[in-house]
Amino acid sequence: xxxxxxxxxxxxxxxxxxxxxxxxxxxxxxxxxxxxxxxxxxxxxxxxxxxxxxxxxxxxxxxxxxxxxxxxxxxxxxxxxxxxxxxxxxxxxxxxxxxxxxxxxxxxxxxxxxxxxxxxxxxxxxxxxxxxxxxxxxxxxxxxxxxxxxxxxxxxxxxxxxxxxxxxxxxxxxxxxxxxxxxxxxxxxxxxxxxxxxxxxxxxxxxxxxxxxxxxxxxxxxxxxxxxxxxxxxxxxxxxxxxxxxxxxxxxxxxxxxxxxxxxxxxxxxxxxxxxxxxxxxxxxxxxxxxxxxxxxxxxxxxxxxxxxxxxxxxxxxxxxxxxxxxxxxxxxxxxxxxxxxxxxxxxxxxxxxxxxxxxxxxxxxxxxxxxxxxxxxxxxxxxxxxxxxxxxxxxxxxxxxxxxxxxxxxxxxxxxxxxxxxxxxxxxxxxxxxxxxxxxxxxxxxxxxxxxxxxxxxxxxxxxxxxxxxxxxxxxxxxxxxxxxxxxxxxxxxxxxxxxxxxxxxxxxxxxxxxxxxxxxxxxxxxxxxxxxxxxxxxxxxxxxxxxxxxxxxx
Length: 556
Ligand code: GLC
Ligand code: CA
Fold this sequence. Notes:
Elements: H1 5-8, E1 11-14, H2 30-35, H3 37-43, E2 47-50, E3 54-55, E4 67-71, H4 78-90, E5 94-99, H5 109-114, E6 128-129, E7 149-152, E8 157-160, H6 175-190, E9 195-198, H7 231-241, E10 250-254, H8 260-267, E11 276-278, H9 281-284, H10 300-314, E12 321-322, H11 332-336, H12 343-354, E13 360-364, H13 385-395, H14 402-412, H15 449-454, H16 459-472, H17 474-478, E14 480-484, E15 491-498, E16 501-508, E17 514-516, E18 527-532, E19 543-545, E20 550-555
Parallel strand pairs: 1-2, 1-13, 2-5, 5-9, 9-10, 10-11, 12-13
Antiparallel strand pairs: 3-4, 6-8, 7-8, 14-15, 15-16, 16-20, 17-19, 18-20
Helix pairs in contact: 12-16
Bound molecules: alpha-D-glucopyranose and calcium ion.
The site of alpha-D-glucopyranose has 9 residues, from loops.
């Protein structure tokens, strides 16, 4: 298999707004990040994915960019960025930035020009259409709910926005737009960044004629903008004009509703498009009919099926990204573990899985501390634009009761992962001396980095060890994957193998003791303990696993 630095990397995602404030305005910033790089180095990660740091009016916390070549006012200056990057480099940390080019902010100068008149040179940078019978050009729905079109009175046309009205979609059909994007990518590469995470990257190409979508779909219209007709042509062009001009740029595309077959097209090793993608199957399993705000019970065998499928079906053909959380998902320990009694054990078990699978692992900030969901009980506490729109659409119209929606939000809202980092037990967890932009999770007095660094048994120290072991054992990175006991609703059992080096992973996903029987196909002469979240010896065999126990062996 083709070996690459970014396949061996362990990535840490920083959501700058919530990481560390350095000037007391309650908003995390670049200087704050720089001041915490020693902490990241100690954890052992070697790559940072930075959520958007560009100039933005913050309708969607930076995912609405008004200048691609400047820094968000609240985050600091270009000098701060350069300094942060130099300090990362000194510590051997690569920097991957967020490329948000499905849309810009409506305050980007391209859009300011574009909306002025139909013959403005920037008109065709966006997707403008005449209305139909006094209504929107088609029935597409925004991914934040509501119509995907907004009307502009001066020019009597509508523009498309797959996200908020302040995030107009760029017109990728226009070669000038694509060239602007490629130039901007070069600008950042030449400043020294090592790669890009491509936001909403499956939506750039829209089907000609923008036909009405199927109304039974939650995301009405998605069949005409996800994996659209020219999407692979665009990535090939981006690769040819930008990525292949430099050495080993890391790319990871965020692609909604992606199947294994699609993934091989976006990121196949023979395709010259992207290095890897984020898929969403394992995090979407609990959404009824694809609706994030309508939940169904979790089933372990379904979860394993999805995880294992991505492991085996991309093997040798494309490369996986491994993640349990990010700034759009709830906290992993609250979701799949037990964020109370077995918080320590279950958080360790979950990351044992992530760090022993084939692919590049991503740790979202705070996951190394076992941070939990926000615990908000009032709608006033939420800030996310997605929460505000869904509240308007479903609660204010009487579709769902406030109590029911608050319950759902406490499980699934994006703000669960956006509460500020918990550095210590001082006021505001050491995140800011001012008022945090988003309310802290109250548990920062017990769950925080200082406590974790002082405690040898902490999730942080376990994660540190997982990272170190992964760096020392190529089998953990490149090994092929084989699952056993697929129907087991409690245990996840699999092996990895590379050049005769073998690894057995046994994970208990429940808060109860569970019997493990060694599959008879597994034969060994010698075995040794790789890691466990409980006391364990290195002997492979039948055993009773304790609540959320994870045990990994190397064997020959
Ligand atoms: C991606 C981002 C999300 C953002 C959206 C629009 O899904 O991860 O945070 O709201 O794109 O840019
Ligand atoms: Ca600040």
